[in-house]
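queue> pop job 88
queue> type: inverse folding (structure -> sequence)
queue> payload:
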């Protein structure tokens, strides 16, 4: 899967702004972006300078305005993106109240997934002691469990809210990046918004830098 974001038709100041998660206001200085399946991307910008905007745009959460977005050469809509995207942070979504085992097992059946629950437990490093806990109440395992549910639900784009470098560094020790690599190897796209490339550049395939360039 190839995603192209085309900003050529945007007039005037090439910016887009949106309220995200009710309390976060983010502005992206729009530009052309291309993403390929099988990759984990770090979306890098200062807080409020676009990394979360682009993440949620790919998640089908933001109106396109004059942007055009193409998947494999086909012009898509916000709803198209929403149907194939999955938020790694369950506390922001309706599925936050689903328990790990039941939600994954039901989705395996519904989507005729060839993997068993045991396969998913192994691939996403899910602790058996937490299989009957709601996704929103998990701690270090929360994103892995959410990723697992999105995977068996057949999603192609995995996105997230903004987190700082220390969050991703701490998650490195929780097998999260091993689970995300499993997703990428299955042909998905993962985007991780972060304020600095200090750590993220060593664990993702590519960084996309979104901070505006100011003339001096």
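queue> result:
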């Amino acid at each position: 899967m190839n995603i192209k974001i085309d900003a050529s038709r945007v007039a005037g100041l090439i910016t887009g702004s949106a309220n995200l998660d009710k309390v976060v206001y983010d502005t992206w200085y729009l530009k052309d972006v291309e993403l390929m399946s099988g990759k984990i991307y770090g979306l890098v910008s200062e807080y409020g300078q676009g990394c979360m905007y682009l993440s949620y745009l790919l998640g089908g959460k933001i109106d396109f305005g004059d942007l055009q977005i193409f998947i494999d050469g086909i012009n898509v809509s916000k709803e198209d993106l929403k149907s194939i995207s999955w938020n790694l942070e369950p506390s922001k979504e309706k599925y936050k109240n689903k328990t790990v085992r039941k939600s994954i097992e039901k989705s395996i059946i519904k989507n005729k997934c060839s993997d068993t629950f045991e396969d998913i437990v192994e691939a996403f490093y899910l602790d058996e002691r937490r299989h009957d806990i709601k996704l929103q109440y998990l701690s270090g395992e929360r994103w892995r469990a959410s990723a697992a549910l999105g995977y068996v639900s057949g999603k192609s784009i995995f996105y997230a809210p903004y987190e700082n470098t220390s969050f991703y560094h701490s998650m490195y020790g929780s097998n999260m990046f091993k689970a995300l690599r499993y997703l990428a190897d299955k042909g998905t796209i993962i985007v991780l918004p972060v304020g600095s490339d200090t750590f993220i550049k060593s664990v993702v395939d590519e960084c996309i830098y979104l901070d505006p360039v100011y003339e001096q």
